[in-house]
Amino acid sequence: MKKIVYKVLYVILIIALIITIALLLNKEHTSRENEKTNQEVLAEFNNLSNTNNISGLENLTLNGYEVIGKVSISKINIEYPILNIETSNPEETKTPMKFGIVKYWGGNVNDYGNLSIAGHNNHNGTMFGKTKKLEIDDIVELTDLTNRTIQYKIYEIFVTDPNDVSILQTEDESVREVTLITCTNGNKERLILKAREF
């Protein structure tokens, strides 16, 4: 009887392992496809920027979401389009965040005040997966739809509760700021990086 129980447990463990591997492979495949799509849209963004085609920039989309700018952080070798999701409901940010970096709160890219952008902390280092390597005084660049690029210097890094909305507030409306948001610790907390124009 014990042999039968062990065989059944063994089979269950093998099936669970196969399912886990399949799910991980699917997640990695989806991540690679999203990365490829982001890089294609980014190449189009850069091409339109280089030719100063402002109307083309204004009509650029990724998976149906309007591209409103670009974020670049050379220290960690990331560059992504920023998607506009036009919602104040955090639940509605989940789907577009599967595809890329999203505007979470604030005005337009490079406007005065605080622009908050959010991205997944992917284990393979894509999206905002490498932002934990950033330090105070590192540079974040944002390019808007008028082809203007502004540099922002990181002045504060901290971890907070996912429900902490104080990170969205603007301390000074006469200053350009950007807040980078990503998850950490199994999605239980948020890593926040705040930067301002210098």
Overview features:
Sortase, Chain: A, 32% strand, 3 helices, eight-stranded mixed β-barrel, 198 residues, alpha+beta, globular
What would your notes on this structure say?
The protein has 198 residues and is an alpha+beta fold. Helix content is 29%, strand content 32%. Strands 2-3-4-5-8-9-7-6 form an eight-stranded mixed barrel.
Strand content: 25-35%
What is the mean pLDDT? 88
**Which word captures the global form?**
globular
Main β-sheet description: 8 strands, mixed, barrel
Oligomer: single chain
Instruction: Count the DSSP helices.
Output: 3
CATH topology: Sortase, Chain: A
What's the arrangement of secondary structure elements?
Layout lengths: L1 H49 L3 H5 L2 E2 L2 E9 L4 E7 L9 H4 L3 E5 L7 E6 L20 E5 L5 E12 L15 E9 L4 E9 L1
Parallel strand pairs: 3-4, 5-8
Antiparallel strand pairs: 1-2, 2-3, 2-6, 4-5, 6-7, 7-9, 8-9
